[in-house]
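Shipment paperwork, digital attachment
Item: protein structure file
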Amino acid sequence: MIDGGSTRIGMYLGAGKPQAAKATSHLVFYGIFGLSVVIVIPWLCARSHVGKIFSTDVAVVSSMASISTLAAAGYIILSLFYYAMATLQAQARTLPIMTSLFIGAWVVGVPGAYAFGFPAGLGLLGIWVGMSVGYIVTTVLGVYFTYKSNWEKEAKKAVERSKGRDDGDHLVVELEQNRRASVDAGFNTMVTPKE
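Attachment content:
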């Protein structure tokens, strides 16, 4: 859904249709979020049995039940980030994605996992709690950057990018036109750029 949604949003932005891009972004949100809820419901219903797949030890089964609840909640939270990532990627705004992931996962998540897991004494559950806090920060930042999107401005930027304003793009077009002119004039020489 992320790649398809991002492509469709980008297509509308490049066509100069910001409202259609925004509506598609909302559709991507409903699809990703809805799918995550559909996945999480059976996961939560089976949380007390998941540990039995790995062990018959009661402590492992109990630990997996508590971790599964946290992981299921995290899955839904991260679905919101994936929606934001699809939208920001379509807008060619990768810096907010990188910033959100770096701050949430590395600046907050890793130290949080250590702090909750070891000094706080929560063990494996604490590691999951710390990482979940990091993912919440990642999601909040990603959704914030998406919410603050200026769709009209992003559409104008996408239209400009699609025109090929880069000097290298003009060089390729000019070389192709020169090659065609040479062929049309009866010259069979190929003009190639120096690298």
